[in-house]
Queue: 3 jobs
Job 1
Amino acid sequence: MQTPAVQVDPITVELVHEGLIAIVREMRANMMRTAYSSIIYEGQDFSCGIVDDQAQLAAKAPADNPMHIFPVPWSVRMVLDRFGDDVHPGDIFLHNDPYTGGTHLNDVATIYPVFLDGRLFAFTVVRAHWGDVGGMTPGSISGQATEIYQEGVRIPILRAYDRGQPNQAVLDIIFANVRGERQRWGDFTAMLVSCQNAGRKLEAMAEKYGTATLRTCIPYYIARTEARMRQQIAAVPDGTYTYEAYVESTGRALEPLLVRVALTVRGDEMRADFSGSSPQSDGPTNIGPAMPPTAVLTIAKSYLDPTPTVNHGALRPLGVHAPEGTLLNARHPAACGGMSETRRTVDTVVMGALAAAVPEAATGDNRGTSNHTYIGGRDEHGGHFIFYEFPAGGTGAFGGGDGNNAVRNFQEGDFASIQPIEAVENEHPLRVERCAIRRDSAGAGRWRGGCGLLRDVRLLADRAALSVLSDRNILGPHGVCGGEAGAGNRFTVRRGGQEIEPSPIPGKVTGFALQRDDVIVMRTAGGGGYGDPLDRDPAAVAADVAEGYLSAAAAPARYGVVLAAHDVDAAATVALRRELRARRPQVTLAAWDGPEHEGPRRVLPLARCAAAAAGVGEGDVVELVPSRRAPLRAWARLLDEEGERAYLGPRGLAILGMRPGERVYLRRLGPWAPPPTAD
């Protein structure tokens, strides 16, 4: 830990620290009160922060989205590297380039330098989701983009204002290439004013405390946060913990993409190596270099030190390696609209690795995606309308508690779960006809995951286009410590009484033509469960049935609970649970010296007798379920041999923390195919 050269009063440090956070909170309030787009003032799809003159995150609010704000230092570093000393009071810089620290093109960062006593002190920054930045579909994000040019205007670090004067040529080029220009101008102005107001607040703090005090306090409390993070990491047993998970498809073909991590803890430092992950894809499921460190920081902080204080100090003990040219560090011209989907898979593998290191902190997986849903077209006045929704799902269960239903989770900021019906219907030719908890979507467990959301939206215009970019549509969010997966996300169109799949690739839709009275049906994923479902309190199962979270038929099938007139039949429940445990298929692990993967897919050579006992067919996706970790997923390859053997190579055994000869529960997830038409 670096100690500041000047000792400061700890009370003053706290006042300065909390004062900076208060400025960020005020930036958020300004954005919500002045932005033009409902996705900002209702959906809260934006974040704010203060970054010091060394490109270190100095302050954020607890409500800000880590996916937005943790990459901001990369954007500020680009300003410093490109412009150096040519940064002046009144300048405004814009950035959205995912290859140099951005997220995806819709997330535009406005960066405002603040000078105190004639020297650069900090930058105030707002990163906000613009409802459209051009590209091939309304809303810019779609499931089948193949290169970044199809996703809109790419903004490297640009000076949009020079010493307080707008660079009109730059601004004209940007806003001439977006749909809904009035809304985009309004949002940009809100971002600009929020940054400028925050700059004035910093100047007022300098008058109160003195510029030298402010400059001393920031590195002091950043170093303190670093020390706390190192202390928490040091409590984790040394070792290397591995895990792997999948992005379901590129949007071009139903072929998964592998994300793999080796998480090494040595003393008070942690290093994540993502070598072995799939090459960058020809679809939108790629991320830039700022995203893997963002994911590692988000999960490590949440699992090991879930206190609200977050700044650059928490990042210092973490090392991240994501090889260039993979989907986790993509190069031009890879499309990156699916940044949220890929980054959340990075979250998933870090969560899985930490579940092995600190199982008491493990949680079931979350919905694993932003569920970008765009409905765009022309309104009755001839103008563009663009409806953007990112419906939330169930959160993962944890040791001692159920997940929450249809809300944001610790990987996200304080976003709204959905936009209010009034906002949707006032701004767009749409009618929200149903908004409900999705029954039976929660991952079963001793503590169940949260339920997903069910939302029906009817089109009232003559025509429009639907685009969706989602994941976890086939492989639902996994459970941990024996918990089951939640139901996957799913997006369909109801037309004339029939449900239509708008794409052959689930969750990847580009410009599907809608007609008047089509109903877009959004079903979001439930969170993964925690612990054995047969250990759940029968009274809690009965309560879930009474609340409508669980169907009466699912109570005995998933939890072994027998209900009679909504009351638990205790004797029948004990007997059924005993029977279900006895029938639970187990396999004996055996060493495999062949390839562990065929392309991106992990294969599980499995004796045909063992497969039959588990109801597993050739090519089915299965889980090997340890009692204290996250499960290992694989595609079954049936072997013509007797016995109950399942074969794993060294990495697969390491993920499970098991050895050849040990027995483990084998659970079938289902065929690798789109979901059926009926839910």
Note: The longest strand covers residues 119-129.
Job 2
Amino acid sequence: MIRILLLCATASLLWSCGGNSSQPNKKVFRYNQASGISSLDPAFSKDQATVWACNQLFNSLVALDSNLNIVPSIAKSWQISNDGLTYTFNLRNDVFFHDNACFKDGKGRKANANDVAFSLNRITDEKTASPGAWIFNEKVAKENAFTALNDSTFQLKLLQKFPAVLGILSMQYCSVIPHEAVEKYGENLRANPVGTGPFIFKTWEEGNALVFLKNPNYFEKDENNIRLPYIDGVKVSFIDNKKTEFLSFKQKELDFISGIDAAYINEVLEKNGELKKSWKGIIKLQKSAYLNSEYLGFYQQGPIAENPYLNKNLRQAINYGINREEIIQYLRNGVGKPALQGFSPIGLPSFPSNLKGYNFNPEKAKQLLKASNYKGEELKLYSNETYKDMAVLISKQLESIGINVKVEMAQPAILREWMSQGKVLWFRGSWLADYPDAENYFAVFYSKNTAPPNYTRFNNKTFDNLYETSFSITDEKQRFDIYRKLDSIIIEEAPIVPLYYDEVLRFMQPNITGITPNAQNLLDLRRAKL
């Protein structure tokens, strides 16, 4: 009862606790954040909860469309120098910061190139202690990396060619903020966000409710010249139990949830991952690609007498001996796609759809196993409790072709430490994209990278040369061709077993429209309608 009263008190600043009934013309989008939100300062947008909130409040130079292509945002256009080291951005002149007490007379001023330079320098400033400082490491020039040439022209200088930098600039870490807000609020900026985004911060009762209002001066308009966003506000609740969250959604107290508690999966979804007939018309399901690749990794160092996974025939045999379709069907209720191509996942524009990876082929696996001189010794597969069922299923699949597998469990943090130290030879891993470019995935196998991300210690000169060459190619088609070659090397050399490409489930009330799924699971409410 206390929690309900707190929620009502917070929401009453804008809407009654009974939803939109007291102001029937107000359209308020309600979603829950079970994990909580630690900060509304974009420099600390290290998790999905913060990213979702910041995506409503701020803009960056560029953004992503629903297909993860780079599109203009605060920057209306940009040019890349012939040497690929200098990016010059031409800014819009109609972007204004939200009205806030940090400005003279409380009136938000126009955003300019100095604000961009300030914001990006702030990320890299050690005093900020941003967890996103790494995004520019060894990428931007040592001096004058971020420069305002004038109010409407911003320039970025790189240390070396890196075409994926545009993807990095779309991250919420790179949101543009005014220096006045930092000067006024200091560390309390976390609860006093000032941006240029489609919604304005109203109030935050931490752990109870967060409210945003429509920005009446937002610069973007739709194809009919109607100013975005369409809805009047956003209300975020913080129910920390996913079961309770789903019950609230069933009772229409929430408009949207991402993911579903395992206890309700069989109730809501068919085995193929589609919505059950009994739920159709009651809720809407969006199922889309998610930039996360699940895999098994083989450690690629040490004397062969101590490391059987240095034998490529054995690695390939294991790849052919795993039935990925069974994993998706029996353990994931049809959520995800079998990884039958490369390591980089479905959802990336460069996805290697024509690449032939490892299908389930027991006879081929047995032939390769024989060629590997495997003698039936016990092979240990390390995982954590979350993926125990999957590891056990894989062990049984491989046992059916003559491979003796023992599953070992470890706490996630401990397992990651062992992987980093090279203490486990065969392990379950996953890679979730930080930015929407396949370079992010191939860094996992670049020999000059330590662990993380190169947990397998893969070392291949051809791969390294192609990976480095990709940095110099600004033409997307040519660069994507190189990416597909990199994926083909990973398939041939098999330092990993690609298991599946993840998918994200989104559930909405039937009256919700205008929310487009995307492979980074970003929540974009600019065009949402109720």
Note: DSSP finds 15 helices and 17 strands in the chain.
Job 3
Amino acid sequence: MKKLLPYLRAYRKECVLGPLFKLLEASFDLLVPLVMASVIDVGIGRNDRAYILQMCGVLILLGAVGLVCALVAQYFAAKAAVGFTANVRRAVFVHLQTLSFAALDEAGPSTLMTRLTSDMNQVQNGVNLALRLLLRSPLVVFGSMVMAFTIDLHAALVFVAIIPLLGAVVCGVMLWTLPRYRQVQSRLDKVLGAVRENLAGVRVIRAFGRENAEIRAFHGLNQDLTSLQIFVGRVSALMNPATFVLINLATLVLLWVGAIRVDTGRLTQGQVVALINYMAQILTELVKLANLILNISRALACAGRVQRVLEIPSGMPQPAAPCPGAADGSVEFDNVSFTYPGAGAPSLTGIRLRVRPGETVGVIGGTGSGKSTLVSLIPRFYDAQGVVRVGGQDVRQWPLEALRAAVGVVPQQAQLFTGTVRENLLWGQETATDADLWAALTAAQAKDFVEQLPGGLDAPVAQGGRNFSGGQRQRLTVARALVRKSPILILDDSMSALDLATEAALRRAIAALPHHPTVFLISQRAASLLSADQILVLEDGVPVGLGRHQDLLAGCPVYREIYRSQFGEEAVS
């Protein structure tokens, strides 16, 4: 929680004024029993109606002023809590953008989503309640005890005895529930992860008829969360009846002591009523304080989880000085190896590859051979052992923004964002003109179907591009990368949904681009790589062949087997 407190500095004024007005409200509340005692002892005792009306006016005034103070305090507390949460949420989101893919993979998207939503809401609620009640409730409790001493010493000893007992109950429940609330949030992560996975894979689930199995699995996770929440809730619920029992016992003792002292003439009836009112105020405030502590305990547990996100190291140290090189399109892998965090075996081993500007490099291999991992090292999505050079300089010497501006990436999974076609294409280059966008669409073989859309470039794009077919989404993502006009273009199996004629036309259009980018083309189709300047063949992350098509067909058994499986033995011969 300490690392989150600096985000509250912008609201220091609100953090002072909110509790201050709450303390003023509490001070007025403490005066009410004394006024009531005067009404009973003076007004009713002497049958002085004018005095009674006068004191009733005082009570109304105290209530009105207290209400104004409460509203002002609520305003400042809400402003501080909402602003603080917004600042922290913004900081967490900005920090997430700096994390490496390895760190994001380790944290998990469901956990990060929970901490940005549910956890932050709990923190906001806790800050709001703390600013309003954290000082008010103790002030009323101890203020009531002090006021009781001003009325009668012997009766006030009941307050001295009961308050530590109530404090022990509240602290005991708080210490027990705090770690359990952390467990509740962890189990909520699992439930959210299951929901996210099911929504993302709903087509696969229905295609394989796994609805009932997924329902049972979700029911198990949900039942674990529900059981723990019920268990913690039952223990938390013990606080209210325990405090009520202690307060009512204290009230009985107070009535007994008060009756004796009234009978002896040492107390008046109005003073006894005032003492009982102070005891009732203590009861009310302790119930509030108990709920406050539970909410703060939950908020602290959530704040700790949010803080741990901010403590995740980015894993991508930035260079102190700008890179002296230029992104001319050259790429070199110098004895590069890579292992995913937690993986049992390396995904890449001993990669040596030199690519000159403007060349087209094909990468082929079986499933899981490390093709996508290889090209993800160029824009430095991961850091590898060995050296990856772009423009003759180690990628670790490049500022990430400059490096990734020099690389256009079309990922294996075509991902579009909610908005319009124009807005998605402008991700490649924000300053691109309509002419640039249409040129990129033409090269990506997407111009024809975009022209037919209602609105053209301003046609809507649903979440994830669900209103387009798989081939249309792939062509739009290729166009988005082409708008960038970057010296390096990575096509990570991004034409798998296209027919052979459209794919061939797309490859010819890329080869004819005026800025002649260096192209890394990953494909499962050997036909897509026939014209590549170099073809790298991977098997289980190890390079087993490098050369042109004819050379590999003659000297690389793995490539020959891939080619035979797609074209037959006669084509190999």
Note: Residues 323-352+384-407 form one domain.
